[in-house]
Amino acid sequence: MYIVQVSSELAPxxxxxxxxxxxxxxxxxxxVRGHAVELILPKYDNLWYDQIWGLHNVFPDxxxxxxxxxxxxxxxxxxxxxxxxxxxxxHSPDNFFHRGHFYGSNDDNMRFAFFxxxxxxxxxxxxxxxxxxxxxxxxxxxxxxxxxxxxQNFGMSNSRxxxxxxxxxxxxxxxxxILWTTMLGRPEYYFHHDRLQDNFNKTAINFMKAGIVxxxxxxxxxxxxxxxxxxxxxGFGLQDTLHRHGxxxxxxxxxxxxxxxxxxxxxxxxxxxxxxxxxxxxANKDALRDRLLMRKTWTPVIAYVxxxxxxxxxxxxxxxxxxxxxxxxxxxxxxxxxxxxTNDHFWHLKHMLNNNEDCHLELGFSEQLAHxxxxxADMILVPSMYEPxxxxxxxxxxxxxVPIVRSVGGLSDTxxxxxxxxxxxxxxxxxxFHNADHPGVESALERAVGLWYCFPDDFRNLMINGxxxxxxxxxxGHHYSNIFEYIRHK
Length: 490
What we know:
Elements (H helix, E strand, L loop, with lengths): L1 E5 L11 H15 L3 E7 L9 E15 L2 E12 L2 E8 L17 H18 L6 E5 L6 H7 L10 E6 L7 E2 L2 H5 L5 H4 L14 E2 H8 L2 E4 L2 H9 L7 H6 L4 E3 L29 H12 L8 E5 L8 H13 L3 E6 L4 H13 L6 E5 L3 H10 L2 E4 L9 H7 L3 E5 L2 H6 L16 E3 L4 H17 L1 H13 L5 H15 L2
Parallel strand pairs: 1-2, 1-6, 2-5, 6-7, 7-10, 10-11, 12-13, 12-15, 13-14, 15-16, 16-17
Antiparallel strand pairs: 3-4, 4-5, 8-9
Helix pairs in contact: 3-6, 9-12, 10-15, 15-16
């Protein structure tokens, strides 16, 4: 099949979160499976251009109908670590993609509406006729609308759309002006509950709802989260829409790039290891303690790696930190918060605990330190309020670092409790708690630390069970290939 991925992010050239890693990893896996894959991104001014090979202008005269006129664009082509990628550069006086950031402008809905229109116009005028257009998150939600309301009438009737939602929280709301600038027009048609009208704000269109309604298949990034989004407030108001379109909706668990996250060849850790040489992991534990000036003692190291915000259960992270220090464990944290008050609070904690040799708070992000933490820690904490998929726990499993997680979203699909899971013993790979409160997280921490101290062989078996699990892109690549084949013939 010929597949075109349309996305606002792609690792490593335009990365804000996990979306970028997913688009890259899935694209590569689909190529390995023999599909022809191309990607389309905005040409932001803050791309990591040193990660693009052979960038050159391949379509210097793309005119995109927009409002009462047209916007001139250049389309560039380059290889992003082997991925064939087109970048759309807008010459609009609005400077849609020359803002010094990927998101955060007041007119983000207009910026990405233009990106959707320009991507479709490029496919049309370049003669590209993909079997599958795979769109991601609210930023590309208008692609299937444009395809089925406009572009299928100009020779693109054989293309089908798969729409993947990575985060239901951000949906892209806009007013009637978007319909006129994209030349969809007909507000009386689109402002309908069965089409683009937001489920609660009757004066707004919803980009994500548009993607759900008009695409041929809708996925989210884990089976458990797919159910949560349909049946709980984790659908952020789109529950009814997901029910109406449940016949074309499902969850596909994301994968992890095992070329990057591989204990046997990771260039960012000092000591390589595998299941047969698992004791070498503890040399990385010593290296981690040396780097962070922590005490070398016979205690487990509990780690947290990720954002510090309400979604990630920041109140539980803080509680776990002090619980660890009071219960014979060390604690390492790597992350920062987009919220100033939360960031200030953790800076205060950092200064307060600065002389404590049993903990270290690194407020920022370092890719190299993240790899060392995964390799050196004994346990990784993921106490999320909601977690569509989560990569942290899957990386931890690969590195023999036992996850302690809350039972939500993709965490439920990947971590199986040592004590209470009903599956076979060899599947059990971590500790799970349910209630998002202090007793809940303490229950899992107590079991994990208790096992580490009292039954080290059983703890080691958990590590090995996790390392044996396959959360590569192989399985999701197979699922997406089946979905694409299914909708291709509809």
